[in-house]
């Protein structure tokens, strides 16, 4: 239990979000116009939780018998989760009305999923990680099919649930093996006795199963089969949350699990595994995305490729690469949420206007949307001096420092391939004649989400040292 006022203060983000969930349930029950209250209420709660989390970055404490790590590294992840969720609820306010499928539990499920993410990234106990994972995943299964009038949404929810449950089985079985070999679920305890586990087949099998399970959650090849259909079928704003905050939470856990595969006899045991999935994800994601005409499927395969770039950092497993992963995750969150927010604005009923042809001549209809969409595409492609470029640069630099120059070269080549399909969107926006008669209305909610995302992409790109300094403080 917390033993001082400072430790209680460090738990405020968790407590705040828990109280927000309870109040949101009451708002949904007792207020007839809850759809006008919950978006702003949720956004304010997420913003407050994010700011308080970042405020505690200089502090570090292990609470509840070492099960919860508050402050430091976890503070950065909690900030990303909450700000991402804030942008998603802002973008969702009018998107849900467009489909006529407003359900109050939508916002409550987002709040609950973020609480699960915070538990995942802040714990130092395998059992607590699993509990946070299931809280996040169950919410995502429901959110994927929140628009239950759409057959594609039902299909997305079912596919995500079945394959997600399969991955959870890997994680739970791996957890059981690790516990059986070590007689504990505390990560610090396991790390302190890691030398005694060198020849323990049961332990290393358990660690491998844990890593495989979370490879599904980050959408790495060959555990990516659910991504295109789920991203396409789910509500666009939900897809934005899953592809950013959900991915960030999974990478947060993998960074924690790297401690279990810390160099034994001078070798990073899981380096070959991460190097292989990084290569497969980068190459497969980039090449398959070339043939996509549906923008959500294009960004789905793009997400797979980006999982590969970040996995390079896991393979290198040094200070530079881990800092690079966190920088990349923060940058990717705002690049992708901004892109999906614009897609949700342009999207019509019954999945209309999701193909790339719908963006032809967008500059003549909405110069602002055309400019920011191009900004997000350039950032995702890694064009300097935007945030996406520095995300890749720091990860590649960490790989070179770790003796994995060949993997960094594969990453650069994959990035060159990806430039084509990102710039293809920009070409349609500025150099193609309009092929559809679109009516574009940007609400203040969506406009806020788009502008904030664009500002973060520009700030992280023009002043990368600002974020790197925060990351160094967290790890200091």
Quick gist of this model?
The protein is mainly α and 476 residues long.
Strand-and-helix sequence, N→C? HHHEEHHHHHHHHHHHHHHHHH
Helix content: over 70%
Total DSSP helices: 20
Shape: globular
Calculate Rg over CA atoms.
21 Å
**Sheet with the most strands?**
2 strands, antiparallel
Low-confidence stretches: none
Indicate the structural class: mainly alpha
How much strand?
A: under 5%
Count of DSSP strands: 2
Largest sheet: spatial strand order: 1-2
- Give the averaged pLDDT, no decimals: 88
- Could you give the distance between the termini? 24 Å
Explain what this protein looks like in three dimensions:
This protein has 20 helices and 2 strands. A two-stranded antiparallel sheet has the order 1-2. It is globular. It has 476 residues and is mainly α. The longest helix is centred in the middle third of the chain and has 32 residues, at 151-182. The mean pLDDT is 88.
Key features of this structure:
2 strands; two-stranded antiparallel ribbon; about 75% helix; about 475 residues; single chain; mainly alpha; 20 helices
